[in-house]
UniProtKB/TrEMBL annotation:
Listed SUPFAM superfamilies: UDP-Glycosyltransferase/glycogen phosphorylase (SSF53756)
Protein name per UniProt: Glycosyl transferase family 1 domain-containing protein
A Gene Ontology BP annotation from the UniProt entry: lipopolysaccharide biosynthetic process
Coiled-coil ranges (or none): none
UniProt xrefs under Pfam families: Glycos_transf_1
Every Glycosyl transferase family domain range: 79-231
Record keywords, A-Z: Transferase
Organism: candidate division Kazan bacterium RIFCSPLOWO2_01_FULL_48_13
Length: 256
């Protein structure tokens, strides 16, 4: 199963040891494989471009949202919440999200920023952005959260901001949509596949564009409701039964 090619596409933002190990085994493993599964068309295309694999050898098997669990309460700000879920690392563009949040507050838009995820590789820039923010008191860094706590966050936030520079799939946007949370994300890699027409898409590394999109969701009730309904419908296109069916079919055909 091919998930992503972060170490090949972002080697300077990946741990050197992990990058070397992946580059050592990836190419020969792909060459020996009779059939391959990829979690998105984007990942499939990356494999074709990076390794020259015949695209007919790769079948896309989309993932599904996390299995629903009972929400576990967690203390949250009273103001409208911009939520980020994921590892706090440069590839996720969290420092840019902090800048977009700063812009919103300078525009007198009432909101808080909640970051849910552990600190990742090369996170010093993100820590610095959070500390330096004039609105740091309204930025809540939760660290790792459980599945139950994550469900609670999706259910009580106002919008998910997911400005990642690259994703093999992009699970947080799918999970957010399945819980009725509007999504703002980037228009690159696999993310447009996952959200379809059910989210606001922005260019990568554009804090102004991210700020404007978030402002729309925070201030326009009709837009927010449209995104909620579209997101719920879009999320139903992804489920683990389909993943299992496609995966089993590929395995049976490969064995024949």
């Amino acid at each position: 199963m091919l998930f992503d090619f972060v170490s090949f596409l972002f080697p300077k933002r990946h741990q050197l040891k992990a990058t070397l190990l992946e580059k050592m085994w990836m190419r020969p493993a792909l060459a020996r494989s009779k059939a391959l599964l990829a979690i998105s068309e984007s990942t499939k295309n990356d494999a074709v471009k990076l390794f020259g694999i015949n695209p007919d050898k790769i079948t896309v098997s989309y993932l599904g949202p996390a299995v629903a669990v009972q929400a576990a309460p967690i203390a949250l700000p009273a103001s409208p919440i911009i939520l980020f879920v994921g590892t706090l690392e440069p590839r996720k563009n969290v420092a840019m999200l902090v800048e977009a949040f700063n812009q919103l507050r300078r525009r007198a838009i009432d909101c808080s920023l909640v970051l849910a995820g552990g600190w990742g590789w090369q996170s010093a820039q993100i820590r610095g952005a959070v500390t330096a923010s004039p609105y740091a008191a309204d930025i809540k860094v939760l660290g790792y959260v459980s599945e139950a706590q994550k469900t609670f966050l999706y259910q009580h936030a106002t919008v998910l901001a997911f400005p990642s520079r690259y994703e093999g799939f992009g699970m947080p946007p799918l999970e957010a949509m399945s819980e009725g949370l509007p999504v703002v994300t980037t228009n690159i890699s696999s993310l447009p596949e996952v959200v379809g027409d059910a989210a606001l898409l922005i260019g990568p590394d554009l804090a102004d564009e991210l700020s404007d999109a978030l402002a729309q969701v925070l201030t326009d009730d009709s837009l927010r409701q449209r995104l909620v309904q579209a997101g719920l419908a879009q999320s139903k296109k992804f489920n683990w039964q389909n993943t299992a069916d496609v995966t089993l079919r590929v395995l049976i055909n490969a064995r024949a």
